[in-house]
Amino acid sequence: MNQFDDIRPYNDDEVISTIDRLLKDNELMKVITRFRFPNMPRPMIAPMVPVVRHYVKKQVEGIKTVHDLQLVIERYVARMLRETTLGLTVSGDEHLDKDKAHLFISNHRDIVVDPAVVNWTIHHKGHHTLQIAIGDNLLTKPYVSDLMRLNKSFIVNRSAKKPREKFKAAKHLSSYIHYAIVEEQENLWIAQREGRAKDGIDRTNSAVIGMLALSKPKDVDLATYIKELNIVPVSISYERDPCDIAKAKELHAHRTLGDYEKEEHEDATSIAKGITGFKGRIHLAFGEPLTGNYQDTDEIVDELDNKIVSNYVLQPSNCIAYQELHGCLPEDIVVTHQQIPFHEGDFVKEMQQFQQHLSECDESYRDILLSMYANPIVCQQSQKNNKLC
């Protein structure tokens, strides 16, 4: 494993020393203090740090392995699902084989919650927990990197600028993913694209699939290599996106100004809001593993997109937003209601709640927010007509 030490998750023998290092990090303790006491006056933060450090130390007492840590984290994920959602439903888990490792490739709406929900689900279905891909652009502080790698995250190098550096980093990542799945039998999660799909259109970046194929030996055909990775398409849908207004604001800036400059610590704010904000219903759909006789990576991209879009379960918010923009739902959805996980009698109540949320969005980019929720229906309708969304 030495060749992957720069990007792999931490091992059990690194857990205690890493936790000790984190406990000594005053900046991290201040961040936890501000998160735990958001209304505390700034001058009180520093005096509270020793108290918070003592509390955190008690929380992590007895953690000696990665599994020990994940059992602690599991309690917080359970609390998040209990307090910020109206329930999690799952379909397609019969496609998962407990005797095989999987590469889960998922649509991407939330930085932390997407992989957390997949991880929670497969853990409770009796599978090994995930190793999770995370971009080094999010690891702005050493303590963030330590925290992520303790929790089975592996690092995607997005800071490389020169073409040769980018290629080298991509091939290194490709080799690690193949090694972790085939040799170590670890389940892995990666997003289908870099960055969240802020517009609600779930499209696979061909560079992701190209990266996976970089470590393919010359004497192995592409289809065989892809089968080794055991790729499972994942579709996750949220009734409500806690970051939807912020995403709409960013897209509005791109539309009107041609650019958007993130505020300081904006990624951290998005992470916190995604975890603590109201998400309504969540549905997680696992597709059948990719087993086609692929001749090139474009065919893999097309199949991933088709499965992720078709398996996406529509939420009431999707239907209401589509009606707001287009006047009525497509006929096949109106007639069957097969994909919509709510009772028709609740539609008026759902609409009132969504309208209230819509009123909180600035009128200048309200149409963008509506499109964000309506686009999964647009994409499914386009797919039926053999068109791209």
Structure, explained:
With 389 residues, the chain is α/β, with parallel strands linked by helices. It is 51% helix and 11% strand. Strands 1-7-6-2-5-3-4 form a 7-stranded mixed beta sheet, with helices on both faces. Strand 3, helix 6 and strand 4 form a beta-alpha-beta unit. Helix 2 crosses helix 3. The protein is globular, with a radius of gyration of 22 Å. The model has no long low-confidence stretch (mean pLDDT 91).
The coarse overall form would be globular
Using DSSP, what is the number of strands? 7
Number of helices, counting only DSSP H or I runs of 4 residues or more: 16
Order of helices and strands: HHHHEEHEHEHEHHEHHEHHHHH
- Radius of gyration, CA atoms, in whole angstroms: 22 Å
Low-confidence spans: none
Please give the order of strands in the largest beta sheet. 1-7-6-2-5-3-4
Secondary-structure-based class equals alpha/beta
Task: Describe this structure in a few short sentences.
The protein has helices spanning about 15-25, 25-35, 45-60, 65-85, 115-125, 140-150, 165-185, 205-215, 220-230, 245-255, 265-275, 295-310, 315-325, 330-335, 345-360, 365-385, and strands at about 85-90, 105, 130-135, 155, 185-190, 230-240, 280-285.
